Amino acid sequence: MGELTLDDVYATSYRRLVAQLHAVTGNRQEAEDVVQEAFMRAMPRWETVSTYDSPEAWLRTVALNLARSRWRRTVRGAAALVKHGVPAAEPELSPDHVALMDAMRGLPQAQREALVLHHFCGLSVDEVAASVGAPSGTIKARLSRGRAALAGVLADG
Amino acid sequence: MADWQAFRDELESAPTRQPSFDVLRRRRRERVRRRAVAGALAVTLAGGATGVAILGEDRTAPRPLAAEAIPELNRIVNGKQVAPPKDYKDYVVTDVDFVSPVTGWALGLRCVGDACDVATWRTDDGGRTWSEPVPVAAGVPRASYADEDPAGGGVRSLRMVDGQTGYAFNPDLYVTHDGARTWRRIPRDSKVTSVSVSGDSVWFTHRGCPIAVDCDVVVETALTGDHVLHGLKVPETDGAPALVRRAGDDDAYLVTWDGASAPAAFWWTGDAGRTWRARRMPCPDATAVSMSARPERLLWLVCTTPAKRVAFASYDHGATWKAKPDPPAEGVVTDVVALNDREAYLTTQTPGAIHVYDDLEGWHKAEGTAPAYGYGNLDVVEENKLFAMGDAGELWVTEATDWTRLALPPGAPRAAATPPSAGGLGDPSVAWTGLSFVDARRGWAVGERCADGACRIELMETRDGGRAWYRTGAPERTAAAGTLSGDGEPTRWSVTFSDDRHGWITGPETFVTDDGGHRWRPDPGARSTGVVAHVTPHGDDVWAIGYRGCDDPPCDVRVLHGPREGHLIPVATPPLGEGPMDLAVADERHVYVLAQEKTVSTSDGGRTWTTSPLPACSVASVSAFGPTGLWATCTPSLAGDPQKQAYSTDGGRTWRVTDLPASGVAGHDIVAFSPTTAWRAGATRGVLLTRDGGLTWTGDPTVADAAWALTFVDARHGWLIAGNVLYRTTDGLTWQRLG
Fold first, then answer.
1. Angle of CA points B520, B523, B527, to nearest 5°
2. Which residue, B206, B282, B200, is CA-closest to B244?
3. N or C, where is chain B less crowded by C-beta within 10 Å?
4. Of A43, A47, A91, which has the smallest distance from its Cβ to B716's Cβ?
5. For residue range B701-727, what is the model confidence (pLDDT) as tens digits?
């Protein structure tokens, strides 16, 4: 009981979470920021979070919530973003994945989250539904629409 | 063409900034420090108390009339008024604050000449009766905001954070850490006008100069319960009247207005006051403003303008505003609370009224209230329970549409019994038998008080993890001692809450509540369920066992299932026999019933059930860890037989039964967390922990008596009763006696 420390989770899960949030946000720096923020929010709650079946899932949910919140602010600050551009360099990706990322950016946030949680994180439809607080049917619809939109760039789309 | 696997691999292997964990720790510490410095203005008190920071007098509002001019004003002292100048030898309540629908405190003054005494009273029955006064300060100057020397020690406002910690303030500042039984002064050199608490921070707002001088308001913050204050920069208010509301840990609003000299202005902070953003003020010509801010982003402004009174609502921190129907124009607004977009309350003085807004009837006067000089201090402690202070020693309360008038001290009925002590369940005349917690702080204890041949159920509630308990509603049921159970056995009532509203008291009868335990009614489904036991919530589901017809055996025993807020109904299972011994819910799909001769289980949420053998021992209690892990305690068949424990890792299909290594520790309850870790409440000796799969059990010497009602909300936070005393663990390893 209680052997798992947040440092351990940080060491083992950080990179994976950043990759998942990168896929959702389309922005590496944004992903790093929200994942680091999620870990900081876990610090005072670790006593509770550590008892969960998957502390990593909790961290991912918090990071997704943060990303959603930031996204709303970004929408309001879209003019500034257009003016100043994306502030940080993005890692170089293969052309296929650049195309996929670009196509993902064109999707509604909810569809992106559903696709990433299901295909990227390996969650079942029900688990995705529980994670984002939406009915399973809604998740299925988001996945279906998302896959349809990505059909041109995904081999299994 | 891309595929998800390759996409994931490439993103996971891409260069990533990963600061050391120590960097994150430092960043977090720095943030906590900044937030303690920053704080957020005004209010989200635990318990939902309102909190208004009037940062300076509203110089455009009518002044209170002189007490000499209207005799009845001699008794008028509410939180926003100057104390009447006459001597008043009886206490006058100036503020009221509730931390739960039943528990609250009042603060009042009595003044002769220039000297006042300050006292608090406590209620544990929703304001119907009040305790004896507890002194806060004696011989201090009158608590007039405009004239008061804050160094003089006078206070007239009260904010309780929880059952233990609270502040008396305005203009001086005192803190209590024992439920207002003792107070300690925090010396200040300025006038504290508002205290607000959210999360782990408390904000004190005050002006650093006399009211007649135009100066900006000051906000200081500290960790809750602490008195080391740090300053926070807020927008310059140029000495204008200002109002601040806090709506959660991070969100707060500041509005200022200065009549004709400058347009009213509105700011929002979303980062605990580090930065403030000016937002459009929907009523720039306001000459007075009231504001309601609740954590769910619902924000209401009520503005009095030269032309009329108007109201606006915002769901986006003031980025956009939606006009609401105009509130009544008469009187001076003293407080406003919006519960949601369709329901709001507004109080006024001169004339005094409580106005209610709903989207069907619009604004209308609260039913049952009387004309008065003024109403104020709206205090929402639950969605449907709201207090308002009247101006003549009255407390008004509503739980639906009608309002009821209660008396405040000193004229109020005196509480019949001393409130529970600050440590533990307190009342030794009650045999406590059941505990239920919904999180690390909020819980309930049920017991039975027997006197003069009659017994009745007692129910207490805690909101601080069990340090302080308050009597709350209990089912009205009395019977001769020893007869409640119907069979001469000692009654053992249990209590189970599935969330902070829905609960069951089970025993010889079943009672249900949907308001957090204030009102109980007999289980409406009792005819189909019979006597209910082993109520076990899990997520959105509740499982239980129903025993029907046991007065005339054989019993009809059923598994019961329902939503956490709904009725339990029998589900179809293989026959259970007459005496299921316990129920364990592993997750939303896996439920195990250890019945009289077999284990009955489901792995699909109750749609289908299978049977398997019982362990070869007499099971007393079972607990699940993971979907298919079960751990049971057994009682010996004969005195002197070895104690047994049973263990299954395949959902009860097979069991391993072993002798317990220590004798004399037969268990009432077991709570398992993993294949290796479990707690047992011992029948003869305290509580025991194993961390090696039951090979060894270690007792905690703190708990020496037989223990029961063992309950945990997670692996670290647990409670039990032993020797009629409550014990708690907060580290999952050691136990602490509470009281």
1. 160
2. B206
3. N
4. A47
5. 888 777 878 899 988 899 988 877 888
